[in-house]
Design goal:
The protein has 313 residues and is an all-alpha fold. The chain has a domain of 112 residues. It is 76% helix and 0% strand. It contains 18 helices and no strands. The longest helix is centred in the first third of the chain and has 20 residues.
C-alpha cells in the first residue's frame, strides 16, 4: 500500500525495497513472492534512471528467486520482466555491479524454457556478447553470460545461427581468460559444447578450440560436470574435423588420450562421465592415425575395463 501510494517518489520506493529484503527471507512470505516481484519491477521501471534503486531491486529479485528455488516454487517471470531487465542492461551498460546482478538474474530465469524463449524474443544475445567483451575480467559476469548462452542455444527452437556463431570467439576468450577458475571454465565448456553441437564453429576454430578444451580438462579433471561437457564438445569437434582429431592426440602439452584415461580413473563410478567418454572414443576411432595412437597407448585395456564395468556401453 505504501509503494502504491508513493509510486512517483524515488526515496519512498527505495526505502520500501530495503524493507522488503527482510520480509522475503521469511518463509511465511512465500505466497506473496510473485506479488512482491511485480511491485519491485514496477518501482524499478518507474525510476529507471535511479542506479541505486536498480541495484537494490535486482538484489531483491535475486533473493526472491533464490527463496523460490529453495522451496521448489516455480517463479515464471513474464516477457515484460525479461524485456525490462534487458532495458536496464542497455541503460546502465557501463555499471559493472548492476550488470553482474542482472546477468545472474538472467541466468537463473533462463533455466525455464518459457523464460529462455522470452529472452530470445527480446534479442538478448548481442547484449550478452557485448557485456562479455567489455567485462571479460569479471568472473561472475562471465559465469552468468555463458550460462544464459547455454540455455538459449540448447533449445530446439531456432536461434539466429549468425548470432550463435559470433558467440564462439567470445566464449573461447572467456575460457582462455578464466582457465584457472573451475566454475567459470565449466560454464564456458558447456556453452562451447552446445555451440559446437549446433554447428556454429568455423573450420579455423576447430583446432584452437580443441586445444582450449584439452587445457580445461587438464586443469579441472576433478570436476565431473566439466569432464562431461568437455568430452561432448570434443566429440562434436572430432566428428567434424580430422584436424581436431590430430590436435587431440598430438597436443604439445600432452595427448588427449592420457586425459581420457585419467578422467575415467577419477570418475569410473559416475555412469554419465563414462558414457560421455565413450561418446568421445566413438568419434576418435573414425580416424586411422588416431586408432594407431590408441593402440600404441594400450587404449584397448581401458575399453575392456569399461566393457566389464558397464556391459551396456
Amino acid at each position: 500500500e505504501f509503494m502504491q501510494a508513493f509510486w512517483d517518489i524515488e526515496e519512498a520506493q527505495a526505502k520500501a525495497v530495503q524493507h522488503l529484503v527482510g520480509f522475503v527471507r521469511d518463509k511465511s512470505a512465500l505466497p506473496y513472492l510473485l506479488t512482491v516481484t511485480e511491485f519491485i519491477t514496477f518501482a524499478m521501471k518507474t525510476h529507471a534512471d535511479s542506479l541505486k534503486l536498480q541495484v537494490d531491486g535486482c538484489s531483491l529479485l535475486l533473493e526472491i528467486l533464490s527463496q523460490a528455488l529453495e522451496q521448489d516454487v516455480v517463479m515464471a517471470l513474464d516477457e515484460n520482466v525479461t524485456r525490462f531487465l534487458l532495458d536496464t542492461v542497455r541503460k546502465h551498460s557501463e555499471n559493472e555491479e548492476l550488470l553482474s546482478l542482472v546477468c545472474t538474474l538472467l541466468m537463473m530465469i533462463s533455466a525455464s524454457e518459457v523464460a529462455a524463449e522470452n529472452l530470445r524474443k527480446v534479442g538478448v544475445i548481442p547484449d550478452l556478447l557485448s557485456i562479455l567483451r567489455n567485462f571479460l575480467h569479471n568472473e561472475k559476469i562471465c559465469l552468468s553470460c555463458c550460462g544464459v548462452l547455454w540455455s538459449l542455444a540448447v533449445s530446439e527452437n531456432n536461434v539466429d545461427q549468425a548470432l550463435l556463431k559470433s558467440a564462439v570467439p567470445v566464449t573461447s576468450a572467456v575460457l582462455q581468460e578464466h582457465l584457472q577458475n573451475g566454475t567459470v571454465t565449466e560454464s564456458a565448456c558447456s556453452a562451447l559444447w552446445v555451440l559446437s553441437l549446433q554447428g556454429c564453429l568455423s573450420e579455423n576454430e576447430y583446432e584452437p578450440t580443441t586445444a582450449l578444451l584439452l587445457d580445461a580438462l587438464r586443469m579441472h579433471l576433478e570436476r565431473p560436470m566439466l569432464v562431461k561437457n568437455a568430452c561432448l564438445a570434443l566429440a562434436s569437434l572430432l566428428r567434424l574435423s580430422e584436424i581436431s582429431a590430430l590436435r587431440f592426440i598430438t597436443d604439445s602439452k600432452g595427448s588427449g588420450i592420457n586425459q581420457i584415461k585419467d578422467a575415467y580413473h577419477l570418475h569410473f563410478d559416475d555412469p554419465e562421465v563414462v558414457e560421455n567418454i565413450c561418446v568421445l572414443i566413438n568419434e576418435m576411432v573414425q580416424y586411422d592415425d588416431v586408432v594407431l595412437d590408441m593402440l600404441s597407448q594400450k587404449m584397448e585395456e581401458l575399453l575392456s575395463e569399461i566393457k566389464r564395468c558397464f556391459p551396456s556401453s
